[in-house]
Amino acid sequence: MGIVIQLDVMMAKRKIGLMELAEKVNITPANLSILKNNKAKAIRFSTLEEICRALDCQPGDIIEYVKE
């Protein structure tokens, strides 16, 4: 499996929707959806930083390594 994005879990905990988070992070809803659904191949540190700022969390709260 490798790297798993748990963005949907953190969004639910913070009670924030995709459109609202996309606006706060200044990313398109389509790109945020790709990230949220584990379809992204990469993420910029600046985007990760903005997501963590908007959700008041640490990168480890939304990114997890799962052994294959």
TrEMBL record:
The residue range of the signal peptide is none
| Annotated InterPro entries | Cro/C1-type_HTH (IPR001387), Lambda_DNA-bd_dom_sf (IPR010982)
Q: Where is the HTH cro/C1-type domain?
A: 20-62
* GO molecular function terms attached to this record: DNA binding
Which PANTHER family does its entry note? Answer: DNA-BINDING PROTEIN, DNA-BINDING PROTEIN-RELATED
Write the protein's name. Answer: HTH cro/C1-type domain-containing protein
